[in-house]
Task: inverse folding
């Protein structure tokens, strides 16, 4: 078991990474509770696969587990589900001093965190991520939110959890495709500013995906450290934290084009988006083509999609994609702030990306 700290002064919190954590959850959770009960928000799939482990762990530590079970899938991150969750929690009599737990992937984590941030003007919550994506990314850093018709994550808050429990065993039931999607975010940390981590992943990515214990620990702990460091430097994303959006402006446009459906998972969209960010950087003459090929080769080798052409929901319409990108939160004073790269481990924010150049690039990509 390893501990990574997210250093945010009085709001600092630990991320515990290891095995068998759900069975021992009461050890970490009980000290946060005034009443020995925990409201556990989860989805139907996770309720079957992992909730029994957590409920047993809580109960053996004398903590009552009160589950709230939602529909699985990205569409659960909606106003309708947000309202319904708040109503259910109020109906159950949640008090200001109660604690919520998000047991699930990024969808449950983002929705529960958002609900916690506004329920009775803010209650504490803990993250118990059960997807690789949530363990290395969404459970850490305090970004919460839901999607709207206009796009992803456009409504939300910053609300840090008190604790994150990333349990390797909980990934045993996670389908292969979901593991791979989460792995895209692991690769992202190497691409942002850690070339040697990317090289380690080229050699060990398959072992991370098969949950080989030491590879899992190194992959997840390194990712959590990277995220914790960036969040501690720039909690509210006024600067460096934006680097975590590498591949995401493209990726979010792809998710929107697909109507947030299951045909394209967030991590899959990010994989395509990261390759696009590299290829676009190559086209701008700032990134070696060799680095871009290497990124494409690694993502594709582990079985992630890397091509814009043929991505679900993408029509042959570069302008539509550019418009979707304009809805992303990265537009400041009408200019698209975009993460570009000078090579593997050398991402940076460009404040003045020309939209016509972007459109021409996407047009060329769509032609193949
Ligand atoms: N807040 C942030 O900083 C941040 C960062 C990255 C991504 N996100 C968000 O995270 C979301 C994606 O998260 P995700 O990929 O975890 O998706 P998800 O929450 O939809 O989970 C993926 C699927 O796996 C199932 N599942 C989860 N854990 C399981 C397990 N242990 N065994 C079997 N099935 C399991 C779920 O039921 C779901 O169907 C997106 O909405 C994205 O915007 C947020
Ligand atoms: Zn992401």
Result:
């Amino acid at each position: 078991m390893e501990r990574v700290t997210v250093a945010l002064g009085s709001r600092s919190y630990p991320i515990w990474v290891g095995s068998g954590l759900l069975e021992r959850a009461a050890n970490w959770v009980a000290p946060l509770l005034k009443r020995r009960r925990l409201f556990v928000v989860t989805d139907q799939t996770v309720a079957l696969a992992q909730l029994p482990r957590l409920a047993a762990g809580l109960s053996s530590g004398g903590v009552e587990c009160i589950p709230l079970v939602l529909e699985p899938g990205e569409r659960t991150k909606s106003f309708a589900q947000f309202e319904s969750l708040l109503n259910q929690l109020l109906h159950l009599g949640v008090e200001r001093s109660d604690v919520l737990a998000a047991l699930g992937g990024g969808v449950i984590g983002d929705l529960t965190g958002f609900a916690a941030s506004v329920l009775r003007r803010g209650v504490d919550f803990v993250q118990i991520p059960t997807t690789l994506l949530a363990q290395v990314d969404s459970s850490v850093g305090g970004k919460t939110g839901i999607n709207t018709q206009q796009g992803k994550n456009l409504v939300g808050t910053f609300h840090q959890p008190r604790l994150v429990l990333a349990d390797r065993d909980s990934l045993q039931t996670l389908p292969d495709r979901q593991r791979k999607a989460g792995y895209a975010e692991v690769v992202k940390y190497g691409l942002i500013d850690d070339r040697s981590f990317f090289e380690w992943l080229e050699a060990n990515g398959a072992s991370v995906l098969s949950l080989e214990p030491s590879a899992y620990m190194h992959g997840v702990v390194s990712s959590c450290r990277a995220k914790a460091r960036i969040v501690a430097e720039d909690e509210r994303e006024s600067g460096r934290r934006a680097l975590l959006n590498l591949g995401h402006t493209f990726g979010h446009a792809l998710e929107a084009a697909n109507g947030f459906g299951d045909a394209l998972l967030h991590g899959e969209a990010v994989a395509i988006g990261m390759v696009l960010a590299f290829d676009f950087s190559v086209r701008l003459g700032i990134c070696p083509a060799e680095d871009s090929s290497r990124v494409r080769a690694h993502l594709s080798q582990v079985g992630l999609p890397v091509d814009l052409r043929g991505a679900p929901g993408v029509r042959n319409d570069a302008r539509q994609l550019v418009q979707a990108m304009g809805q992303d939160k990265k537009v400041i004073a009408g200019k698209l702030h975009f993460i570009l790269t000078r090579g593997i481990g050398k991402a940076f924010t460009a404040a003045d990306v020309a939209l016509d150049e972007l459109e021409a690039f996407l047009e060329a990509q769509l032609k193949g």
About this structure: Residues 137, 185, 248, 266, 270 surround zinc ion (ligand 2) (CB under 6 Å).
